[in-house]
Amino acid sequence: STAAVVDEQPIKPLVQVEHTGLLIDGKFVDAASGKTFPTLDPRTGEVIAHVAEGHSEDIDRAVAAARKAFDIGPWPKMTAYERQKIMLRAADLIEKHNDEIATLETWDNGKPYEQSRQVEIPMLVRLIRYYAGWADKIHGLTVPADGAYHVQTLHEPIGVAGQIIPWNFPLLMFAWKVGPALACGNTVVMKTAEQTPLSALYTARLFLEAGLPPGVLNIVSGFGPTAGAALASHMDVDKVAFTGSTATGKVILQLAAQSNLKQVTLELGGKSPFIVCEDADVDQAVELAHFALFFNQGQCCCAGSRTFVHERVYDEFVEKAKIRALNRSVGDPFKSGIEQGPQIDSKQFEKILRYIRSGVDTGATLETGGERHGSKGYYIQPTVFSNVQDDMLIAKEEIFGPVQTILKFKNNEEVIQRANNSKYGLAAGIFTQNIDTANTLTRALKVGTVWVNCYDVFDATIPFGGYKMSGQGREKGEYSIKNYLNVKAVVTPLKNP
Ligand code: ADP
After folding, report:
1. What percent of the chain has pLDDT over 70?
2. What is the tens place of the pLDDT at every residue in 358-395?
3. Cα(first)–Cα(last) distance of the chain, in Å?
4. Substitution site in 164, 189, 240 for ligand 1 pocket (most atoms within 8 Å of beta carbon)
5. What is the pLDDT of residue 390?
6. Active-site choice (267, 367, 398, 475)
7. CB-based contacts of 288: which residues, under 8 Å, 6+ apart?
8. Rounded distance from Cα 247 to ligand 1 centre (Å)
9. Model ipTM value
10. Which of 239, 317, 429, 469 is within CB 3.0–4.6 Å of 274 for a Cys-Cys bond?
11. Which atom of ligand 1 is nearest to the CA of 232?
12. Which of 192, 158, 183 is CA-nearest to residue 80?
């Protein structure tokens, strides 16, 4: 079916790349070394722009600027209301430039423009407003202690936050990290992903326009082992927040421990079960399971990447899942109606094709897809495997691509045991009309998020994070605020109690 794809001319994006420098102390500057690296268009592999490449000297400069903006101020010394107003103004500016930002995001990342424009940039705005709302609602407690003491807690910003983000949702990851840090009065040095540096630079510029003081938000583009590692191991960074692979998460934790024991939050990989129970309406289950896996080219840490289907509905499910994948529209993400664009880069593209070969080699049934789509760029055919066994690599490791793996199960006890038999514990989906089944599975699954009869619902208020090797700490919602606060207990004797 997809074999006869004709390559089209890529649609020309209607924006110019304005910012390619490092953002340090309120100015876009060259890297100390003068080096740059190319950021590529995943539709073609061609260069979009050359971006300043930060190394440890640049991280040092950015941390010094953030330190000054924290210690001398004005950021943590401003009133919470003033900080809130700046964040709200930034959100207004982002909203005004929604389409330009969405264009940059799609150009650099390859995700459908309609998704960037209608979902992700509006969600970025929503997140910044949500966190702005927190700024003036953060306060400590008065604590009743034994004895004649007046005891209170002060909730203080931690200081300089280092933040390292991935390429799959560049601006949502930006918002999840910058939002709570700024609301609590911290200053930030962010290392964006080397695949997608452009949209954060543009968005940070709008924060400056909104009145964010210099040094409060610094952005250093560059690579992980150089710029990223320098940030995670910096002696003057007080906290590091990381989203990415579990392997790199371990490195971050080590670097933090070996340097100054900075506080760490980690949001890592997953191999999330999506469980279709025996009472499922198969058409609806197929559609939701398809969305859970294929959304964002399959490049989601919480992708529903183990589709467990009850034996009673299994055959019908597999047949319909295959047809749905065959009908998925793949092509230039700037074209309207496109559901799937290219994967992020050649490394991910090759890795996904290797996993597909491993699925075939280990005896899973390739129902559809399995090859590249077209002849240029990093497009991959929507791929469905059935007859997948738990011990196959494709059922254990994170593929991070458009590859659905369908496994058969007989009863709830069995599926609970198999779903939990993973080093990961990020999320799970349950599809059933039976409230007892939903309650039983929800409580038994060792994961940070359970979506019942829905998937990938990401409101600003809902905490997100992992059990087991999927991470430490929670982002979004009230839970994310405490990642950016220190608690100071203040004890004063009462002279005349
Ligand atoms: P992926 O393999 O999907 O790119 P990574 O975990 O390697 O996932 O990347 C997520 C982020 O972590 C990126 O910004 C990347 O540059 C950064 N990174 C990668 N390696 C390191 C490292 N050794 N130290 C610090 N940051 C790193």
Report:
1. 99
2. 999 999 999 999 999 999 999 999 999 999 999 999 99
3. 83
4. 164
5. 98
6. 267
7. 274, 429, 431, 453, 454, 455
8. 9
9. 0.98
10. 429
11. 25
12. 183
